[in-house]
Amino acid sequence: MSDDIIAEDIDGMGNLRITDKGLKLEGDSEFLQPLYAKEIQSRPGNALYFKSARNVTVNILNDQTKVLTQLITGPKAVEAYGKKFEVKTVSGKLLFSADNHEVVVGAERLRVL
Description:
With about 110 residues, the protein is mainly beta. The protein is built from 1 helix and 9 strands; from the N terminus they run αβββββββββ. The chain has 2 domains: about 5-80, no CATH class; about 85-113, no CATH class. Belongs to the sarcoglycan beta/delta/gamma/zeta family.
């Protein structure tokens, strides 16, 4: 075995590479078990896609792994679970919020169809 082949084997397998910043995954990949990561991002200028036959679920956990908030995108609905739900503009202005006690519409104009 040449040194070049050994170096490629040490750096990663297939589409997965080890870099100085962590792991780099190129192309389409399939995860058969849950994926745990500090950060997932696309290359600059490229979109990040998640594909699922049923739904995509994002859970925010506390230190004891109890679900604090949850976002589920499914075939019929987008559901958000948590103490409060907010929609804001890019600049941070509140457009809509809802919790157990009140619903706030922060837009200057409300239109009902």
